[in-house]
Amino acid sequence: MTQDAPRPKRGLKRPIEVVRAELLKDADTKRIAKSVGMELEAYVELVLEYAQDKDKDPMIAVVSDEELHAKGFQTPTNEDVAKLLTKAAKGELGVNEEFEKSEFSSARTPKGPSLTGEAANPSGLKTDPALLEQIKKNSSKG
Question: What b/e sequence results for 14-40 when a residue is b if at least 16 CB atoms lie within 10 Å of its CB, and e otherwise?
Fold first, then answer.
C-alpha cells in the first residue's frame, strides 16, 4: 500500500516581501483593486494568498437574487439580460468610458512604403534635404 503524500505547494520563487512591495507600487494592481472595489492592501494580500499556493481554487459564492437585494445590490431581470444579449449580437453595445478617454483610434494607415514617392511623415519630423540628395545619388548608381 502506498500513501499519497501531500504535494508541496507550488508558489512564489521570490521572497513574499519583495513581491508584496512590487504589487503595492504597481499601477495596474492599483487600478484593478479600485475597479473591484477593494482597498489596495487587501487586494494585494488576496493576490499573494493565491500566488503562494497556485493549486488553491478560488472561492465562488453563488447567492440568490433575494440575498443580493437584501444586501442592496440590483440584479437584472431576465428581460434586461435578453435585451443585453440581443444588443451584443447586433453589435449595438457602446464602448466603455475608459476606452473613450484613451482616444485610441483604429483608423487604418497605409502599410509599407509609398509607391507614389509621396511618403507620409507621421512622426512630424523634418526631413534632411542633404540626406535625401545623398540617397538619390546612391540609388541612381545602382
Answer: eeeeebbeebeeeeebeeebeeeeeee
Q: How confident is the model at residue 36 (pLDDT cuts 50, 70, 90)?
A: confident
CA dihedral of residues 131, 136, 137, 138 (deg, nearest 10): 90
pTM higher than 0.85: no
> Residues 90-100: pLDDT tens digits?
877 776 666 66
- Grid cell digits, residue 36: 473591484
Please check whether residue 52 is in contact with residue 11, taking contact to mean a CB–CB distance below 8 angstroms: yes
Question: How far, in Å, are 68, 69, 73, 78, 80 from residue 83 at the CA level?
Answer: 22, 21, 20, 9, 5
CA distance 135 to 139: 6
Place of cell 540617397: 135
